[in-house]
Amino acid sequence: MDIKAIWSEAVKNEYLSFGVVTVCFVCLLILFANILRRKIPIFRRSLMPSAVIAGILGLIIKEVVLAITKVYGLNGGEGINIFNTATLNGIVYHMLPVAFIALCLREKDDYASEFGKTEAKKNRVSATKSGALIISSYLLQGLIGIAVTFILGKFFMPDLNKATGIMLALGYGQGPQQANATGYIWDMAGHMSAWGINGARNFGLTIAALGFIWASIPGIILVNIVAKKKGITVKRNEFQKSSEVSSHTIEGPDEVPLSESIDKFSLQVCMVGGVYILTIGFILCLEFLFRASGIKFLIDLIPTFWGFAFMLAALFALGVKVILRRLVRTGVMHRKYPNSYMMNRISGAAFDLSITAALILVSVTTLGTLWIPVLIMTTVGGLLTMLHLRLLCYHIYKGYKEEAFLAFYGMETGTIANGMILLREIDNGFKTPAGDDLVLGSSAAIILGLPLLLLIAQAPRPGNLWWVALVILAYFLILLTYMLKDLIFRKKAKTESAEKDT
Question: What is the pLDDT of residue 9?
Answer without folding.
Answer: 65
